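Re: [ENG-882] Designed sequences occasionally contain unexpected residues at chain ends

Forwarding the minimal case from QA. Structure tokens:
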């Protein structure tokens, strides 16, 4: 028996069993035009036909919509089932129940991602699998499992997942942080370490840092008593000044139309990803209609213009044949781009831009955020502040400025910085890693192309590792436990681990220590009166890099040294 409506492939038309008389009464046009075709083919039986438009008119719209939804749903269930049966051969990590199409996305919407994932891990275990749209995510929440991903199976997990924003903003993966390992990536990483972060540049880095800290201290010491300062803003400006001067020779300020801060913040937002990264078809549509694609293009244009300004300036310097002493990181990159190195590798112009992009996006924010959190915790904990101030002032005695040599004696300062990086891991989920082949973690199968997220924030706060007072700012915990940033056992991993670990792992903590030591040597710090009762707001904001939601505002009072030596 034929259904009520069917599609006749020969005449490319819908046909129906609805009696002609009813149709004719309602749609007089139904037979017109098609009659001739039937006669030509010698078809006598008068089977009523209807067009798609007419079909829409016959059925109430709710019935048609329901039919289409049911059809799509059954297709979805069918695909899911066939996927499931092909997955049944694998032992996959536990997952929360999924919702069709979006997967587990809804589980991540109510809180910052690192917090939501940490809560889920308490229910589903230290290794779990989430599905966001069509993409699988492996979530790692203990040191032991992080060890497997970043050490034992590092060769499998050292790739990075692809995304529209990382591709565009890194000149098609010509950077270090977002590109997957290759000989070129290795060479670029080597260049960054030797020409920007390594011991060869340490002297100039230190020289600039000390100068910038001095000028900040000098500025603060000239303020009238009881002046409230936005320390967050000052620290960010200072870090930018140091990184720019060491990397690019001078502080490149704003482009006409956009400030460097806007360019940086927008790049960080874009790097969080778009809908199409996880929902390929529908997401692409939304990226277009929501204006996300246009926003990415604008962000790239501004970032590229900023980087091009730096490159053009340095190219002009090279034409002038500046002396060796005057050369900075970008001059060295331009030099390296003119010859092959010993392994036959030659930097391209786009490589240079990719490297500058990483210094711009990776170097400023993480270092600034770490300083902001460290100072916030110090001020919030008067006991720690007093103990630290005593150590700093006793270690140095009466001097003109605190230098790196004095800092080597400050053991409590090192513990304070470690504790701040533990409680406030600046990049709480590191940068995502991706598996390049099938492997097993913790007895579970991990399929190629899975994005691995290490919850460094949760791991560093886990009471199973750090005891009942894991949430407390207590630097003394490091008196008996020697946890080093390189990961060791991965109890805390603010700089990641394995071959993708942060190349700033040595420079960044030393920078933090020097800045904090100088701020506390010269000044006594207090919360503004209006905040004394309600306490310091420690809410977090951001995703890739998490900073304080409310800037840190404090009142500095120059320490009353008896001899009145001025900074
Ligand atoms: C307190 C300061 C800093 C923190 C907390 C930090 C943290 C991190 C983290 C967590 C990663 C990802 C590691 C992983 O995926 O396993 C990373 C990667 C990276 N960081 Fe840093 N970072 C800091 C400072 C710097 C500085 C000053 C630079 C200098 C330019 C820098 C450049 C990079 C680069 C290029 C990568 C990518 C490495 C790769 O994928 O091979 N970072 N950083």
């Amino acid at each position: 028996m034929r259904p009520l409506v069917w599609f006749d492939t020969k005449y490319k038309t819908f046909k129906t069993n609805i009696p002609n008389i009813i149709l004719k009464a309602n749609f007089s046009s139904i037979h017109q035009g098609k009659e001739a075709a039937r006669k030509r083919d010698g078809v006598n039986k008068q089977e009523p036909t209807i067009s798609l438009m007419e079909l829409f008119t016959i059925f109430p719209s709710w019935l048609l919509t329901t039919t289409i939804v049911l059809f799509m749903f059954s297709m979805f269930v069918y695909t899911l089932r066939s996927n499931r049966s092909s997955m049944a051969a694998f032992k996959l990590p536990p997952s929360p129940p999924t919702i069709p199409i979006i997967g587990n996305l809804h589980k991540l919407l109510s809180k910052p991602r690192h917090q939501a994932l940490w809560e889920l891990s308490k229910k589903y275990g230290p290794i779990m699998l989430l599905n966001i749209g069509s993409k699988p995510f492996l979530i790692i929440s203990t040191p032991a499992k992080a060890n497997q991903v970043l050490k034992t199976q590092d060769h499998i997990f050292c790739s990075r997942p692809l995304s529209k924003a990382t591709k565009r903003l890194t000149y098609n993966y010509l950077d270090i942080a977002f590109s997957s390992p290759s000989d070129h990536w290795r060479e670029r990483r080597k260049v960054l370490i030797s020409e920007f972060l390594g011991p060869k540049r340490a002297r100039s880095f230190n020289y600039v840092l000390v100068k910038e800290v001095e000028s900040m201290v000098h500025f603060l010491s000239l303020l009238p008593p009881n002046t409230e300062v936005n320390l967050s803003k000052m620290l960010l400006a200072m870090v930018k000044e140091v990184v720019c001067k060491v990397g690019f020779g001078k502080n490149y300020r704003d482009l006409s139309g956009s400030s460097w801060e806007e360019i940086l913040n927008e790049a960080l937002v874009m790097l969080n990803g778009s809908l199409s990264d996880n929902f390929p078809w529908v997401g692409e549509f939304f990226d277009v209609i929501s204006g996300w694609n246009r926003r990415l293009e604008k962000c790239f244009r501004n970032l590229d213009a900023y980087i091009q300004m730096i490159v053009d300036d340095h190219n002009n310097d090279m034409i002038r044949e500046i002396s060796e002493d005057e050369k900075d990181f970008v001059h060295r990159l331009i030099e390296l781009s003119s010859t092959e190195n010993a392994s036959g590798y030659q930097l391209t112009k786009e490589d240079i831009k990719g490297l500058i992009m990483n210094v711009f996006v990776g170097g400023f924010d993480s270092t600034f955020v770490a300083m902001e959190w460290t100072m916030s915790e110090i001020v919030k904990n008067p006991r720690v502040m007093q103990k630290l101030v005593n150590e700093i002032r006793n270690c140095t005695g009466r001097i003109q400025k605190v230098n790196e040599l004095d800092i080597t004696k400050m053991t409590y300062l090192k513990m304070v910085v470690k504790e701040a990086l533990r409680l406030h891991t600046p990049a709480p989920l590191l940068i995502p890693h991706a598996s390049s082949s099938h492997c097993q973690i913790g007895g579970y199968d991990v399929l190629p192309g899975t994005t691995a997220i290490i919850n460094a924030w949760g791991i560093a706060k886990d009471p199973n590792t750090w005891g009942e007072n894991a949430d407390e700012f207590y630097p003394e915990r490091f008196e008996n436990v020697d946890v080093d940033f390189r990961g060791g056992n991965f109890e805390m991993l603010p700089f990641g681990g394995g071959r993708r670990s942060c190349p700033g792992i040595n420079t960044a903590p030393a920078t933090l220590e020097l800045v904090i030591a100088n701020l506390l040597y010269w000044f006594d710090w207090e919360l503004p009166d209006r905040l004394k009762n309600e306490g310091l707001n420690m809410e977090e904001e951001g995703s890739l890099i998490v900073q304080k939601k409310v800037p840190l505002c404090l009142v500095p009072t120059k320490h009353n040294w008896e001899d009145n030596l001025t900074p």
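QA comment: On inspection the terminal residues look reasonable. The chain is about 50% helix and 10% strand. Proposing we downgrade this to a documentation issue.
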